[in-house]
Structure formats: C-alpha cells, structure tokens
User: Fold these one by one.
Assistant:
Number 1:
Amino acid sequence: MTVGGAGDDVRAGVDLSAAEVVDSLHHTDGCSSSIVSALDRVDSTMAGFLLFLGDQPNVPVDAVDALLAAASTGAEIAVVDYRDGTGHPFWLSRSMFEALRGLHGDKAVWKLLESGDFTAAHVPIDDDVPLDVDTWEDYERLLASD
C-alpha cells in the first residue's frame, strides 16, 4: 500500500498491520508517484500487481477474479469494463515496470493502456463502476448505499 501526504493520518486511523506501507515522497506529482514509489517493493517472484484506488471501496470480487484470469493469459495490462464504463482496478505485469517508472501526473496508467504499445485486456463485469469517494457528498452516498 502506498500513502501520500495524509500518510500519518491513514496510519493513525487504519489498521495496516497486514500491509507493507510505502511512502510516496512525491505525492504532489499525481497518482503515478504512488506507483513509481512502490515498484521496487513488489516481490521479485510476482508476475505483476493489481492497482486499486484507495478512495474507491467496494470493488467487486468478480472484477479481481477477472483481472487475475486476464493476467494468466499474458496480458501486460488489464482493466475492467463495467456495465457503465471502464475503471479500476488495473492489472499491471512485471513487463510494464520500466514504462511505469517513467510515469508522471494523474491518469498516466490510462495513457499506457490507450497507447496500444502493450498487450491489453478488457474484462467485462456485470456490475457498475464502484463509487470513487472524492467529496463529503460521495462519502454520504457510499454510507447510504450499504
């Protein structure tokens, strides 16, 4: 797990004892800094990793299963096609690590997906894109949906 500017608050409010936490030292440079910060911490025996957004709870288990299945087919990058749009999480294979190291800013992983330079898979899921909780109103909607 990668944390940015609110890392101390996250550590104080969330039980992270089962996670390895990496500080994103350049978190003001956008989401890609979190990825770059964590790449060297991915176990060398792993074929890649799943990229989740910390502010997007309730990712369906089916999405995770479908991404892992896509990974086993050799896809370098995979993304979920929900009923109402394409979204996170992403599968990113080890063969993508050098490209990932060069990322800057927000939405950079999307640019890699859209580049056509990598073997990509879109996995369909019969569910809606999980709510991205960016505002207090989003948080209230999330609570109301449970």
Number 2:
Amino acid sequence: MNLAIELLIGLRYLRAQRRNHFISFISLISILGIALAIILLITVLSVMNGFQQELRDRILIMTSHITVSGISGGGIDNWESITNTFSDDSDITGSAPYVRGEVMLSHTGNVNAALMRGILPEWESFVSAVADKMTVGKLSDLKAGDFGVIVGAELARSLGVLPGDKLTVIAPQLNVSPIGVIPRLRNFTLVGIFEVGMHEFDSGLILAHMDDAAKFLRLKGKVSGVRFKVENLFDAPRKRHELSQQLAGRYWVSDWTRRHANFFRAVKMEKTIMFIILSLIVVVAAFNIVSTLVMVVTDKESDIAILRTLGMSPASVMRIFMIQGIVIGLLGTLTGMAGGVTLATHLESIVQYIEQVFQTSFLDSSIYYISDVPSLVLWTDVVLICAISFLITVLATLYPAWRASRTHPVEALRYE
C-alpha cells in the first residue's frame, strides 16, 4: 500500500506543472543528456565492432583457423594421415597442406622480401577465400612443374610486374659450386594477382604450387604443415586443444587467436578504454538528475513537511524522489537505446548519404584499406551500456532523495 502511494506521488510530481519551469527544463535536459550519451556509446562501440570484424575477416582470408606444423621448424612427411585422422570430425570443415619459406624477389632491379606459400590449388578453397580475391588470373593457373606464382597487388606494384613477367626468386639457402658459394635462385612466371585488403598479405605474400615450392625450398617430399578450417572460428582455441591431445604432442598446433593475439588484445583494450571514457558522459548527464532533484526537493519542502505530518516515514519520502530520478533515467536509457541501435544499424547508409551530399570521402580508398564505415551492433554491448547507464542514474538519485527524507516538518512550515 505504501509503495503504491509513493509511486503515485512520485509520478504526480514528475508530470505535474511546476511553478518553476526551469526545473522542467533541467529534467528534459537530463533525459536528453543520458539518451545522447547512450546513443554515442552504442554507435562508437558498434563501429569498433564493425572494424574488428572486418579486419578479422580479412586476416582469416589468408590465415587458417588451426595450423598443425612440425616441431622446431621441421617438416611433415605424412600429411595425408593427419587430414584423414580428422576427416570425420564434424567441427572441421576443411583442411589443406602447405609449404612456406622466406624468399627474396627481384625484377628489373626492384627487390622485395616476401613469404612464399606453396599450396594445392584444388585444396586451398577448403581453408581460405583467396580464390574470391583474385584480381588477375585464378588459383587453378598454378600447375605443378610450371613454376608459376601469384603475388599480392601491393607487391606487384612495388616490383612493377605484370602477368607473364618473369620473377627471380632467391632462397635463403646457398649453393656450393666450383666458383664458390652462390645464392640459390630460380625464375618464376607471374600467373595471377590477388588483393585481400591487408597490407601484410598484399605486400609480402606469394603463392606457388606446393610441389614447385617444396622443390625450390628443398623440403624433400615434406610439407611445412596442414591448415584446418573449423565450423565456428571462435571454437578454434578449444579445437586446437583437442587436436593437440589427439596428436600426442608430435606436432606443433596453433590457432588464429594465438598468431594475432597481440592485435586482438590491443583492439579489446582500446574498446574497453573507449567504453570507460565515453561512460563519463553518462556520469555528467547524471549530475543533471542530481541538480533536478535537489531543486525539486527545495520546491516541495512544504509538501514533504505535510506528508511527514500525516505520518509518512523518511524512507517513504526518500523513495518518492528516487522514483522521479529513476523514471528520468529510465526514459533517457530507453530513448538512448532506441536511438543508438537505429543509428548504428543504418550508420553505413547515413555516412554514404552525407558523402554524396557534400561530395567528400571520409575514408579515401586510395589511403585506407577499409573505405566504408562498418557497424556491428552486439546486443551484449547494448545491454551492458544500458544497464550501467541506468545504474548510474539510480545512484544519482540517492543524495537528493536522502536530503528530502531529512526535511524537518517544523522548519519547512515555519514561514508558510
């Protein structure tokens, strides 16, 4: 019964026409401040999620989910048995062997370092999407014995090569000849160019047929390892542990989260820091609630005194004013959530429209690899933002409500 009365009075104070219109204005500012803070938080974190997903997808175009390789850099001579061992695993959707080695490339005086990866074209599509990123040629152009290569777009521009040109590939091993020690090199023919949008791969990776790469790198029938693709990329750490146990430590097993651990850890830390910084805007907006309730308490001192005279307890008075602050916080939180989700969901089209109107580009494709503004709304982030924002508004009501509960009836009614 008491709670119903407190709720009725609190809501009446909230919607009643106050003598001081300035208090109503501050209440509106409080709601808008909380809403804008939440909209900003949801939008910024959604953009960060979008960039993180875009970068992760581009990294995983060329990076396998799980990699099984030889210990201490040694090769694997029975890769077929490894792929057959896990062929019936429902969590693994594809596998492919590979050969890798660091090389130098030379063409008409231009020299670049690169990583050579030997692949089987018919298997590569099971573990990567590089076939979809070919700008010139296709993966099937890599044929055993032809010594053809496919290079990244940035590397091709740096070397100044076109399809059909000859590239001199220099291996780190040396040849001993009657005239002395000379570097081991071979001419490869450029048969294709890929572009995945990651500088690491576009400027420093070349693909060759696995047989040609193994012969050039002198792996003597071995491969560097086997790459696996799992159904859910976020299950890769768990699956890596299972594969490592089944292989009984005979091979080195890694996953994509380990290889790029520092990058994703930095992104996560940046997102956390940004969340903390932007949450301070909610704190600033909550101070408006404190100001509003303090002025309401001052304006309603005589009403509080009458309620106390009629037998209302200080706790009930405190709850009346807490209800006002909670309703203000709830309205701001719900408004901000609706606006933030709507803005973040349509952000890409909004940015494109602004670019068309002002004839500009915020992310020039000639400078940035990601030329649009991706946005990914995660409901876990939305719920966390709204919960913390609402909690801050509730805490902001405590002092003004406590002050109201401490009002002495005699002192409040002395000059009435």
